[in-house]
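quick one before i forget lol
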Amino acid sequence: MKTTAEYWIQHLRLTPHAEGGAFHETYRAPLTLSKEHLPAEFSGDRNASTLIYFLLQKGECSAFHRIASDEVWHFYFGDSLLVHEIREDGSRVTHTLGADPERGATFHAVIGAKSWFAAEVAEGGDYALVGCTVAPGFDFADFQLGEREVLLREFPQHAEVIARLARA
């Protein structure tokens, strides 16, 4: 029997995420970093680290967004996931998370703080179950959802992926 996305959604208690897909936070470090020891873009204290399960299905996307922290994506199960990163200098890289290193897939990828990024299941796939670790820890105060028109003006060289994966 093939394990389905619905199986993981039920068993991991995943709920809809603001950027798309489904998630469940599984860890929030008890250690707190004070604002005075963080870069200026952090508006307050942050937990040292956070961790979530995250699942995307075919036809869904994690829309372009950015946060103030580095984010490490870990592949767990399912089909390959493409994470498109537009760095502050305007360069773009697509990270392939998955279990097929002969096709360029890796088990984890790091998205740098302040990079814009979006994700989608690789062509031909049904779903991908991954984890995301953020340090300093995730806080919605640091989350910015990208607007399609703004991103297209700033990064016209990446128009195809922005048009497809950014919210209007």
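fyi Residues 89 and 126 are 33 Å apart (CA to CA).
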